[in-house]
Design brief:
The protein has about 100 residues and is mostly helical. Helices cover about 95% and strands about 0% of the residues. It has helices at about 1-35, 40-95. Helix 1 runs antiparallel to helix 2. The radius of gyration is 23 Å and the shape is rod-shaped. The two termini are about 30 Å apart.
């Protein structure tokens, strides 16, 4: 039980970190989009668009990481549920054989 609680705590910390990164990239992208709307220089527009593309790639990577954490959490939950449900049954059936 201690190990499971520790794993849940670690997963929750990772989730918070990923959400923090996701928020950071989204906010930065909104700021750049606002700058882009107010810019008339072609070179500046190109720089902002390039930076937006970079941020979008980073955001995609963070969102992928978030999905992986969700899958990991789900797998751990299902594993725990199976142990709780089938663990006692295994003891019952192994005694009767």
């Amino acid at each position: 039980m201690k190990q499971e609680a520790e794993e849940r705590r670690i997963l929750e910390q990772q989730k918070k970190q990923v959400e923090k990164e996701e928020s950071k990239y989204k906010n930065e992208m909104l700021s750049l989009q606002s700058q882009l709307e107010n810019t008339v220089e072609d070179s500046k527009i190109q720089d902002l668009q390039r930076r937006l593309e970079e941020l979008q790639q980073q955001l995609n990577a963070v969102q992928d990481k978030k999905k992986i954490l969700l899958v990991d959490k789900t797998v751990r939950l299902v594993t725990y549920m199976l142990l709780v449900i089938y663990g006692p049954l295994e003891k019952i059936f192994s005694k009767s054989v």
